[in-house]
Amino acid sequence: MGKPLEGIKIIDFTHVQAGPACTQMLAWFGADVIKVERPGSGDVTRSQLRHVADADALYFTMLNSNKRSLTLNTKTPQGKEVLTKLIKESDVLVENFGPGALDRMGFGWEHIHELNPGMIVASVKGFSEGHHYEDLKVYENVAQCAGGAASTTGFWDGPPTVSGAALGDSNTGMHLAIGILTALVQRSQTGQGQKVAVSMQDAVLNLCRVKLRDQQRLEAVGYLEEYPQYPHGEFTDVVPRGGNAGGGGQPGWVLKCKGWQSDPNAYIYFTVQGHAWDPICDAIGKPEWKTDPAYTTAQARQDKIFDIFATIEEWLADKTKYEAVDILRKYDIPCSPVLSMKELAEDESLRKSGSIVEVPHPKLGKYLTVGSPIKFSGLQIDIKPSPLLGEHTDEVLAGLGYSDAEIAEMHEAKAV
Ligand code: CAO
């Protein structure tokens, strides 16, 4: 069976992480993604953080699988001619250059739209068009600071903290993929392409939606009852950093398990769901709390929630995180071991589901990557190795109608 995006041709002008994460996903779903890279060097991540000399770095291979690579100097006349031909026969152009770079290259939206009215031009920028910071170049952590994640992450007595998850990069790429697919559906109705843009600030902010909820609640009543600052600490007029507190209506915390003194990840996340209070009491050996009015309601528990967590930690002291979760799962308590990257890499279930995949690579040998987090009943996703720099240059040029002699001339002129 064919893949759903087969027949969709994408000019992939992306680099680093935000854009490549988007186009990689579209390639998994069957699009023909042609990664356009500068001759000689290519995407900067090919050489960043290498662990095997002369082989593409994992940073590149893990974000560019299933694509083809075309080297093209788009600042030469031949390069511009090739790009013009490609635009005329492609469906989508995705880019995450610094602000204005595509215009400076001579391929602004008006020109592309003129060349191909059905073309969808999808962009990632740090800030949205018209924003007072629209001229800024942006990387991951900059976006996390700009989008509200850093000011609300970490502990109240420490500085703003960024997450290890790529909220600014890959998250923005996922938003852009949704935008592109939506524009493709709209094009099937109207025949017209359009511009699709996602700013990294907006994509982070979208994930910080509940913190904007909290800002408004704070302004209305002066406190946030689910934060550790309540009721014993102080609130200012901005949402504070809440450590590991649960973000919704269920209090939760990261709790120590057996071995925490030497293992930095010997912890579980424990959630106190209101309606699961009785099973919690049974699980941790405190049946008397089930009927004690000082504990029976969420409100009654609020001022002593950290004492409750301390009691649970006492119960956890002789249990590993895995043993603890095996007990708690029987009581239907939402919880998980805190898993290290090593544990995730070795997790049999993730291997079986295709969420962690081993990929062969001509220069790196085998490497692990994260497969599709989206599972389909009618689509099998095969993760193929990322292309070597320029691996498909001649093939793409021949597909555009260039003869062998013309291709050789372009190599000679260093246009490809
Ligand atoms: N041929 C010729 N020139 C090329 C080319 C090619 N194939 N590919 C890129 N270039 C040129 C661009 O045209 C641009 O030229 P000018 O600036 O002279 O017009 C130049 O390369 C540099 O592009 P850039 O601004 O994108 O690169 P940078 O390394 O200075 O900045 C980044 C990198 C990521 C900060 C910037 O691209 C950016 O802010 N992007 C938008 C936000 C984003 O996606 N950030 C996330 C990256 S993941 O952490």
Automatic annotation (TrEMBL):
Molecular function as annotated in GO: ATP binding; formyl-CoA transferase activity
Annotated signal sequence range: none
The keyword Nucleotide-binding appears for this protein: yes
Pathway: Metabolic intermediate degradation; oxalate degradation; CO(2) and formate from oxalate: step 1/2
Enzyme active site: D169 (nucleophile)
EC number per UniProt: 2.8.3.16
Uppermost EC category: transferase
Catalysed reactions, semicolon-separated: formyl-CoA + oxalate = oxalyl-CoA + formate
Keyword ATP-binding: yes
Keywords of this entry: ATP-binding, Nucleotide-binding, Transferase
GO terms (BP aspect): oxalate catabolic process
UniProt xrefs under Gene3D superfamilies: Crotonobetainyl-coa:carnitine coa-transferase, domain 1, formyl-coa transferase, domain 3
Domain of life: Bacteria
The protein's assembly and partners: Homodimer.
PANTHER family given in the database record: SUCCINATE--HYDROXYMETHYLGLUTARATE COA-TRANSFERASE (PTHR48207)
Recorded family membership: Belongs to the CoA-transferase III family. Frc subfamily.
Role summary: Involved in the catabolism of oxalate and in the adapatation to low pH via the induction of the oxalate-dependent acid tolerance response (ATR). Catalyzes the transfer of the CoA moiety from formyl-CoA to oxalate.
Protein name: Formyl-CoA:oxalate CoA-transferase
Native species: Allgaiera indica
This protein's encoding gene: frc
